[in-house]
Amino acid sequence: MTMQSSFPSRLVDARKRRGLSQLQLASIADCSQRHVSFLELGRTRPSREMVQRLSVALALSLRQSNDLLLAAGFAPTWSETPYGAEALAPVRQALDFMLAQQEPYPAVVVDRRWNLLQANNGAVAMVEFLVGPLDPGAAVNLADALVAPDVLRPHLTNWPEVVAYFVRSVEADAAADGTAETAALRDRLRGYAGVQASLAAPSAETASGPVLPMRFAKGAVTLELFTTLATLGTPQDITLQELRIESFFPMNEATRDVFRQWASAPTSGRAR
User: Fold this and answer.
1) What kind and span of H or E run contains 25?
2) 234: nearest Cα among 74, 94, 29, 51
3) Is there a contact between 212 and 226 (Cβ–Cβ < 8 Å)?
4) 183 pLDDT exceeds 90?
5) Fewest 10 Å CB contacts: which of 7, 233, 257, 259?
6) What H or E segment, with its residue span, contains residue 131?
7) Sign of the torsion angle spanned by Cα atoms 46, 49, 52, 56
8) How many whole angstroms from its chain centre is CA 131?
9) Higher pLDDT residue, 201 or 116?
10) What tens digit of pLDDT does each residue of 236-266 get?
């Protein structure tokens, strides 16, 4: 199937994922239901402007919008700049500032598949305490670190509940973007020991409070944290739209005290 001939099926799939009828999509995109029907049947070739209107109406990401343009035979609109490029330096500086404001508590920047891009000192301190120091420049995928059996799992006392929630979010990502890479991440996470059982088991944890905590324990130290996720507000680049800033916050005074102590102590003084 050529890219252009795949446009009708891609449009149908995107519309159905949004739960829209042809009439509803036509109303949002400011065209007729008949035009949407002809586009989905391949009887009408869309203009570039029509593809862009449909992308907005379907709330597609910049990456998905590019894919729909390519399927219709047009060049993509949105760029995907490498994260380390000079053009993104102002954004990286802004993220450095945000991560610094989160100290002494952890904060990280990840891409859409949870590859670690930036981390503050609080995040480094927590990881070094739980699993030991990382090799300089080592690639870190936070999804694998959370779900795999031999990284964070031994210290995450409510691992089944946290992992079930997290894997479901990755499943939603895979359904939304439809890429082989995100599907591969989803399948890899599902394949780790204990994940399927966690997904199948009902959990009372999620109903026990307003947020699902992450509870870590190692030796005499316990940490109870919840997280927030933030994104950039007005991205016009695929890389920037897909960034996530995850910040960790203590849920009790004991956890606050641990991070304050780590912040004031040299690395060699942290308990192992």
Assistant:
1) helix 22-29
2) 94
3) yes
4) yes
5) 233
6) helix 121-131
7) negative
8) 23
9) 116
10) 999 999 999 999 999 999 999 999 999 998 6
Instruction: Provide the 3-class DSSP secondary structure of residue 100.
Output: helix
For 30, the token pair is 């400011």
What's the predicted TM-score (pTM) here?
0.87
- Residue 10: name the closest of 80, 59, 77, 64 by CA: 64
Q: Which residues pair with 109 in a beta bridge?
A: 118, 245
Three-class secondary structure assignment of 40-86? HHCCCCCCHHHHHHHHHHCCCCHHHHHHHHHHCCCCCCCECCCCCCH
pLDDT band at 207 (very low <50, low <70, confident <90, very high): low
| Sign of torsion over alpha carbons 52, 54, 56, 61 | negative
161 to 135, 181, 186, 205: CA distances (angstroms): 30, 25, 17, 7
